[in-house]
Amino acid sequence: MKFGVLRFPGSCDERDAALAAAKVGEAEILWHRDAEIPGDVDAIVVPGGFSYGDHLRVGAIARFSPIMAAVDRFARAGGPVLGICNGFQVLCEAGLLPGALLPNTSLRFLCRQVELEVVNPETAWTRACSPGERLSMPAKHTTGRYYAPEPVLEEMDANGQIVLRYAPGHNPNGSIGDIAGVANAAGNVVGLMPHPEHAVDELTGSVDGLKLFASAALQPAVTVASPPATASSGSPTPSSTSSSRSSGASPTRSSSPSSA
Q1: Residue 107 domain flag
Q2: Any idea what DSSP says for residue 159?
Q3: Which of 32, 141, 195, 198 is catalytic?
Q4: The model's pTM
Q5: 10 φ, ψ to 5°?
Q6: Residue 26 annotated as catalytic
Q7: What is the CATH number of the domain that holds 152?
Q8: Domain assignment of residue 234, yes or no
Q9: For residue 137, which phi and psi values (nearest 5 degrees)?
């Protein structure tokens, strides 16, 4: 199982996500200007951070990065995609997940350990979990209050798209219905505000986050057709773009985590 972890300008949790994914498979960092996802990548992680400095609106610029068109094709073909914190915001902006993330009711940045309850254990990212199981993970964000209109919430509930809820007393941001994580109708795309990649080692207090990555490893591989090549002498090809970027975008199994 190979995970592709996106990197945007301003991402800060992509290395932790790659190291977490490497505990159940392999991991490779994918640069935001790449136009295609490598054919050997089986799952995509859109990590946390502050893509493009959160300018305009959280996730609003990153959703236009070239690689997001490839993520869209991958997701619509059934490939598993996980959005964590800022990645969740990006997926909502891209229309791959319903709803939106609004500023916390406190209007302040928060960082604390929270407990989540598994509502739907049948998604691509929760198959290793049990219904009602509690998962402990850290949450750290300013814009994490999930919102969707009531008719949309009713449809999501009926379709099993509410994946995770904050346990009683653990909603840190005022999310409607205590919603912490949601899925698309097919269940292969999931987004959540807490950070599973920071809950994969007993030394940090919890290994519950590993269950999300292990769930994706149970997925069969998905083949996604590449879009037709377009002739353009002024634009670099995906291969030339890939070869010209810095060594920081290389596979991370042998890399040490950054100080961020």
Answers
A1: yes
A2: H
A3: 195
A4: 0.84
A5: 100, -10
A6: no
A7: 3.40.50.880
A8: no
A9: -145, 155
Domain membership of residue 132 (yes or no) is yes
- Other Cβ atoms within 10 Å of 202 Cβ, number: 8
Q: Determine, yes or no, domain membership for 59.
A: yes
Q: What are the tens digits of pLDDT across the range 184-234?
A: 999 999 999 999 999 999 998 999 999 999 999 987 666 565 565 554 434
Catalytic residue status for 197: yes
Total domains present in the chain:
1
In angstroms, the CA 203 to CA 171 distance is 24
Mean pLDDT of the chain: 87
What is the pLDDT, as a whole number, of residue 54?
A: 82
% of the chain at pLDDT higher than 70: 84
Range of the domain at 142: 2-227
Buried-state track 124-141, b at ≥16 Cβ within 10 A, e below 16: bbbbbbeeeeebbbbbbb
Run of H or E including 88: helix 86-93
Number of neighbouring beta carbons within 10 Å of residue 151: 8
Residue 236 CB neighbour total at 10 angstroms: 13
CA–CA–CA angle 251, 79, 11 (5° rounding): 45
Out of 85, 92, 117, 129, the active site residue is: 85
Q: To which H or E segment does residue 3 belong? A: strand 2-7
Record the tokens describing residue 217, joined without a space: 């490893």
Each residue of 158-177: pLDDT tens digit? 999 999 999 999 999 999 99
Q: Distance between CA atoms of 101 and 175, rounded to whole angstroms?
A: 9
- Which of 36, 93, 117, 197 does the annotation list as catalytic? 197
CA separation for the pair 103, 166 (Å, rounded)? 17
In the DSSP assignment, the letter for residue 225 is P
Percent over 90 (pLDDT), the chain: 76
